[in-house]
Amino acid sequence: MTFALHGIPVSKGIAIGKAVLISRAALEVSHYLVEPGKEAAEAQKLLDAFQQVRLELDQLRMALPKDAPQEMGAFLDVHALILADPALAEKPIKLIHTQRLNAAWALTTELNDLLEQFAEIEDPYLKERANDIRQVAERVIKALNAQKGSHPETEFLPSGDMEVESIIVAHDIAPHDMLRFKEHAFIGFVTDLGGKTSHTAIVARSMEIPAVVGVRHASEMIRHGDWLILDGEQGVVVVAPDEQLLAEYRKLQTQVSKEARKLQQLKHAKTETLDRVDIELFANIELPEDAEQAVKLGAVGVGLFRSEFLFMDRKQALPDEEQQYQEYRRVVDLMYGLPVNIRTIDVGADKALGAGGSDVSQTGTSPLGLRAIRWSLTEPEIFLTQLRAILRASAHGQARIMIPMLAHAKEIDETFRLIEKAKQQLIQRGQSFNPNIQIGAMIEIPAAALVLPLFIDRFDFLSIGTNDLIQYTLAIDRADHAVAHLYDPLHPAILNLMANIIDQAKRANVPIAVCGEMAGDPTLTKLLLAMGLTDFSMHFSQLLLVKREILQANVGMLKARFPRVLKAYEPEAQAKALERLLA
Question: What torsion do the CA atoms of 404, 389, 77, 27 make, to the nearest 10 degrees?
């Protein structure tokens, strides 16, 4: 019986093959009480399991093939950092000694508590970091099971050889576990969990493997050996397709492959419209290694480096100045003199940063709470540490500071005061930095858009964060499924607001970019060009798709048709105006 499952498309392409289910048998946890007097021995089992996983990760790191995506090594490092944090084992060991829970039970109890905390986080990127902790805990549980005589490494793989055209179906896949699949011929994967910013999604994109994640209950509904069609374009998984559907998708698969090859030919083409308007394409990155791929695909800089990844998965000390400096410098070096906009940390009060971080009182999970620059200004020492690290990196290339979520003049004043203080601290140390480092602001709060002259006068460049701007303008919490369907980048209020921001910045000769999801959506490229946008920043996987749209666009014609779009407030009128614009 043919049926379709829907999830989140995270890596484009179409895959047709047989399902290979990854068993979770190795993760089954027994619940029993330890005999009195044997608590110390049980705690030692847990510590031994942690050590075993550390050794496994070290071996995987050393065995990384030369052609492995660089992201893989970074993820192994992240998981090693989680394991190195003694706090992860502290609570389970306490549960073993005080409540006599067996080691696996104690660890999963702590894991569930952590996952509940992450579930309340608003930011989707931070939310996905819960998967890293869960994946590390699962490896420890496998090691505990192995102590009882099972062999988790073999249990992880399905019985029998993987077929030539195989699609992996799993509850979830840790990025480093994908390494062992490299020697097998698998052409895509489907997972129950995950989102667009999950590490496994990032690895899938870097390996250019079609993938759909967040397909709830896929591993329960799909059977081992089922024929699957995995549509990484639409986020659809067709189970047990008939011959007619297979034939249609094979034809579509051939077309997609041809289009992908054509896209690659655009890498070195000049990015300009039909009427010779130069456009600059920047990359959004989460990991330093992403910069290398961005350059290969023709990015002219990093429009948004999300510095939060440095602060993730830490229960003890936050990264110090030297650690941050080395990571920022690595990005700067990989960009070979091209600009790198480093956004200062964007976390909320709903995400504690550990013993070295904040004790700021919780303000709940509302997107209107304490986050981004508001949080940084309440933690000046942490903020100064990051500012000094960015400033030091600016001595090696075009590192630039970008401040998120500003709305008030007093926030701008305090931010500039701390930047100057960081500069003076480096001067006193005799450390080099670019004294004329450029400072930019993200326009993602309607209040900032409405007082844009304040920002134009004070900053060297601006960047529109469309994700938050849409959320705040439409009063929609993107994480609330009850209202998420109302999140609409084509709402007339959004189009008028963005057009006004771009127009004001252009008139004042202040560089303006869009770095939200809208910039990476090729269906919206011509709309943004019609607004006068010339700087786009997106995930590097979207660069060539957007570039293709730019090469086929005539900006003069688009601008002439755009006023009708802005004047259309009724849905039917807007649809007609947009159709005419994009014709």
Answer: -40
> At residue 188, what are phi and psi to the nearest 5 degrees?
180, 170
Residues 6+ apart with CB under 8 A from 107: 46, 92, 137, 140, 141, 144
Dihedral Cα 377, 381, 386, 391, nearest 10 deg: 100
Summarised one tens digit per residue, pLDDT across range 359-416 is 433 434 467 888 899 999 999 999 999 999 999 999 999 999 999 999 999 999 999 9
Choice among 19-28, 279-288, 325-334 with the minimum mean pLDDT: 19-28
Type of residue numbered 215: V
How many residues does this entry show for the chain?
583
Banded model confidence at residue 318, pLDDT cuts 50, 70, 90: confident
Q: Give me 429's structure tokens.
A: 């140390």
pLDDT mean over 103-122:
78
* Beta strand residue intervals within 503-578, DSSP E: 512-514, 535-539
In angstroms and rounded to an integer, the radius of gyration of the C-alpha atoms of the chain is 25
**Residues acting as catalytic residues:** 199, 515
Query: What gap in Å lies between CA 13 and CA 229, rounded to an integer?
Result: 11
- DSSP for 332-384 reads HHHTTT--EEEEPP--BTTS---TTS--PPP--S-TTSSBHHHHHHH-HHHHH
